[in-house]
C-alpha cells in the first residue's frame, strides 16, 4: 500500500510527515532538518537552490527568490481556514502542476486539532496570519488608537469572549516557541500553553494522520476528520430575503436541497442568486455566484418545482445546481473567485448580524406577511373565477371587497393593515368555502365523498410554503402535516 504524506505549506517553513506503524513521523530534509524554509531560488548559473540554501542566497539574489514546495506523489495539503473556493482550487491545481496527487485539502486549525485528538466544533481566524506576522503588535496599536479617538478599549470589551473562558491554549507555528510569546500567552490567559507537540510540526502531523485515514491505514481507521462551514450559505428569495440552505458551522462534506417555485405567471426562467452571510436580508450578505435556469415551460405562478441543491465537498468547494423537476432541465455552477471574503469582512458580517438581529427579524416578518397576503389574493381570485358559479352574488361582492382591501394595503405597504385585511379575507373565504361545499355536496353527493373538483372547490387559498424562486421554500414536513 502506497504511503500518503502530510504537508504543512507554512508561511515561513514547510514540514512533511508520514504515518508509520500508527505514529506520525516528521520527515527530515536533505540537510537533516525537520522543517524546510518555504523558499526556492533561481541563480544566474541555472541552479535552483531550495530551502535553507535558497534562504541564505536570498540576501544577494532577492529578485529571483520565491516561495515553493517540494515534489511528492500523494499529499494532504493544509490551507488557512478562511481560504475561499478559488484559493483552495488554486492550491489543488498547484499540487497537480507540481506532480502531486492531492488526496484532500483541509484547514490548518483542523489538522492541528486532529494531531491533538480534539473534536472540531467551529472555525474562526485570520486567513493571512503566518509565521512571519507579528499581528499582535499591530492590533495593540490599532486598539490604542481607537481608545484615544473613541474612548473605548476594545481589548476589555465585556461583550466579547474573555480570556478566562478559554480552557486550553494550543501553540501552532514555529514563532510560538519564542519564550516571550509563551510568556504573553500565560499572562493573557492565566494558564500555561499546551506544548505536547512541536509547534513547527503539529500541522504536518495532523495532515499525515489524515493521509493515513485516506490510505486506509489500519492504525488510524477509527479516526474521522470533520470540518465545518464558516458562514451560512443560501439564495435570495421573494422580497429580497436570504433563505439559508446550509447553516454556519455545518459539518462538511454536506449536501442540502430545497424546492422553490416561480413568482410570476408564465415565467420561463429563474435567476439563482447565491449568497454567503448571516443577515436576514439578501442585500447585506455577500454575493458569491449567480446563474440562470432558462427554457422553463410557461405555467401559473407557484406550479413549477425548482430543486436547488448546495453541495460542499470535503475540500470546502461549493457546487450549486437548479433543476426543473418537470422537464429535467438543469444548470450548475462551481463557486469561484467571487466567493472571496477578507477576514475583516467576515468579522463585520457576524457583528452586523448580531447587532441587527431584531431589525432583521422584523423585516423578515413584514416580507412574509406581504408574501402571504399576495398569495392569498392570487389564490382567492383564481378559485373564485373557477368556482364562482357555486357562490351567490352577495358572497362574491363580499369576497371581491375583501380582496380589494388587501390590495390597497399591499400598495400602501402598511404592515399592520396588511395583516388585518389578510385575516379578514381569510375569514370571508372560509364562509364562502363552506357555502360552495354545501352546494357541491347537495348537487352531487358523491362529489363530497371524493370528487377532486369538489375538494378543489372547497379548498382554502393556499398559504403556500413554497419558496418563490425569485422566491419562497417548500417545507415538506409542513406540507405533510397539512395533508
From TrEMBL:
InterPro entries registered for this protein in UniProt: ATPase_NBD, Heat_shock_70_CS, HSP70_C_sf, HSP70_peptide-bd_sf, Hsp_70_fam
Low complexity composition bias: residue spans: 440-459
Domain of life (superkingdom): Eukaryota
Entry annotated with the keyword Nucleotide-binding: yes
UniProt keywords, alphabetically: ATP-binding, Nucleotide-binding
Chain intervals for the UniProt region annotation (Disordered): 354-378, 437-466
Recorded GO MF terms: ATP binding; ATP-dependent protein folding chaperone
Similarity remark: Belongs to the heat shock protein 70 family.
Protein name as it appears in the record: Chaperone protein DnaK
Species for this entry: Geodia barretti
Amino acid at each position: 500500500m502506497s504511503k500518503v504524506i502530510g504537508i504543512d505549506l507554512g508561511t515561513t517553513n514547510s514540514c512533511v510527515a508520514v504515518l508509520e506503524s500508527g505514529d506520525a513521523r516528521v520527515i527530515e530534509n536533505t540537510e537533516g532538518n525537520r522543517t524546510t524554509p518555504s523558499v526556492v531560488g533561481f541563480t544566474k548559473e541555472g541552479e535552483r537552490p531550495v530551502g535553507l540554501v535558497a534562504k541564505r542566497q536570498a540576501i544577494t539574489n532577492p529578485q529571483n527568490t520565491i516561495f515553493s514546495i517540494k515534489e511528492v506523489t500523494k499529499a494532504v495539503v493544509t490551507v488557512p481556514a478562511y481560504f475561499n473556493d478559488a484559493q483552495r482550487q488554486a492550491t489543488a491545481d498547484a499540487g497537480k502542476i507540481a506532480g502531486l496527487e492531492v488526496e484532500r485539502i483541509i484547514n490548518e486549525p483542523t489538522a492541528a486539532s486532529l494531531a491533538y485528538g480534539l473534536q472540531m466544533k467551529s472555525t474562526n481566524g485570520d486567513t493571512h496570519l503566518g509565521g512571519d506576522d507579528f499581528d499582535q503588535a499591530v492590533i495593540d496599536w490599532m486598539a490604542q488608537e481607537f481608545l484615544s479617538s473613541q474612548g473605548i478599549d476594545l481589548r476589555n470589551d465585556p461583550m466579547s469572549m474573555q480570556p478566562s473562558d478559554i480552557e486550553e491554549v494550543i501553540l501552532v507555528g514555529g514563532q510560538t516557541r519564542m519564550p516571550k510569546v509563551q510568556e504573553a500567552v500565560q499572562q493573557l490567559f492565566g494558564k500555561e500553553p499546551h506544548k505536547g507537540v512541536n509547534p513547527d510540526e503539529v500541522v504536518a502531523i495532523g495532515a499525515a494522520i489524515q493521509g493515513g485515514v485516506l490510505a486506509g491505514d489500519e492504525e488510524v481507521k477509527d479516526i474521522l476528520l470533520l470540518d465545518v462551514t464558516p458562514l451560512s450559505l443560501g439564495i435570495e428569495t421573494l422580497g429580497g430575503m436570504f433563505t439559508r440552505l446550509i447553516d454556519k458551522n455545518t459539518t462538511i462534506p454536506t449536501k442540502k436541497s430545497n424546492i422553490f417555485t416561480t413568482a410570476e405567471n408564465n415565467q420561463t426562467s429563474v435567476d439563482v442568486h447565491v449568497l454567503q452571510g448571516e443577515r436576514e436580508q439578501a442585500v447585506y450578505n455577500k454575493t458569491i455566484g449567480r446563474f440562470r435556469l432558462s427554457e422553463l415551460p410557461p405555467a401559473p405562478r407557484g406550479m413549477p418545482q425548482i430543486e436547488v441543491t448546495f453541495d460542499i465537498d470535503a475540500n470546502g468547494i461549493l457546487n450549486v445546481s437548479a433543476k426543473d423537476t418537470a422537464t429535467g432541465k438543469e444548470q450548475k455552477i462551481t463557486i469561484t473567485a467571487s466567493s472571496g471574503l477578507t477576514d475583516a469582512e467576515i468579522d463585520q458580517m457576524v457583528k452586523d448580524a448580531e447587532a441587527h438581529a431584531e431589525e432583521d427579524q422584523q423585516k423578515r416578518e413584514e416580507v412574509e406577511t406581504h408574501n402571504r397576503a399576495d398569495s392569498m389574493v392570487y389564490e382567492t381570485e383564481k378559485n373564485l373565477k373557477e368556482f364562482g358559479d357555486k357562490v351567490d352574488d352577495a358572497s362574491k361582492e363580499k369576497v371581491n371587497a375583501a380582496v380589494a382591501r388587501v390590495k390597497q394595503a399591499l400598495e400602501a405597504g402598511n404592515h399592520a393593515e396588511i395583516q388585518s385585511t389578510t385575516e379578514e379575507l381569510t375569514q370571508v373565504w372560509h364562509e364562502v368555502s363552506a357555502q360552495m361545499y354545501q352546494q357541491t355536496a347537495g348537487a352531487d353527493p358523491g362529489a363530497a365523498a371524493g370528487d377532486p373538483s369538489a375538494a378543489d372547490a372547497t379548498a382554502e387559498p393556499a398559504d403556500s410554503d413554497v419558496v418563490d424562486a425569485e422566491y419562497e421554500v417548500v417545507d415538506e414536513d409542513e406540507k405533510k402535516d397539512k395533508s
